Write a sequence for this structure.
């Protein structure tokens, strides 16, 4: 009877110890987190400039080596690189350190662009294969379109022109009904017992 229970207990104990060793090994390695952001600046009605910035942070306990950033998925028929490069390399990224890379693009094409995350590769001394990490994705970019504040103002102006007289009549009737139904000060002072 003891042998029947001993074999599952040994298997569970071995599994738990293997998992603990794997977790301990992963705690002694670099952990790369990357954040990509884009800001738009409209130069004129036919030209918009994008400023792209990628922050790379090593949240692990060991340094990462041969860190490389690749963000070259910008469509060439839509964008021209103006300042900087879309790729960058660093020899070493220490634990707890942060590096940033920025570049600027210009576009003369009116479109909605769905960008892709940037690719970051790095080497861990204990592993032979390069490790890959992707940055956070960006929201769709409306290139050379009117800003949302201008669109909201245009919509509000159109609604006011279309329904303004109806809204004012409803407000006047509501205020009049409120005045009629609310008690006056003189009658509020008199209480019936």
């Amino acid at each position: 009877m003891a042998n029947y229970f001993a074999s599952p207990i040994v298997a569970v104990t071995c599994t738990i110890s293997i998992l603990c060793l794997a977790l301990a090994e992963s705690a002694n390695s670099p952990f790369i987190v990357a954040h990509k952001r884009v800001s738009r600046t409209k130069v004129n009605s036919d030209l918009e400039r994008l400023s792209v910035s990628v922050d790379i942070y090593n949240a692990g306990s060991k340094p990462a080596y041969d860190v490389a950033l690749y963000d070259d998925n910008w469509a060439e028929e839509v964008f021209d690189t103006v300042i900087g490069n879309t790729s960058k390399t660093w020899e070493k990224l220490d634990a707890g350190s942060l590096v940033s890379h920025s570049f600027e693009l210009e576009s003369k094409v009116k479109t909605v662009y769905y960008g892709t995350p940037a690719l970051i590769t790095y080497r861990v001394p204990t592993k032979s294969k390069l490790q890959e990490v992707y940055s956070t994705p960006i929201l769709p970019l409306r290139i050379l379109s009117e800003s949302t504040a201008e669109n909201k103002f245009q919509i509000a102006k159109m609604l006011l022109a279309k329904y303004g007289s109806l809204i004012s009549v409803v407000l006047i009737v509501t205020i009049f009904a409120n005045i009629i139904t609310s008690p006056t000060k003189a009658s509020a002072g008199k209480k019936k017992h």
The chain is about 35% helix and 35% strand. The mean pLDDT is 81.
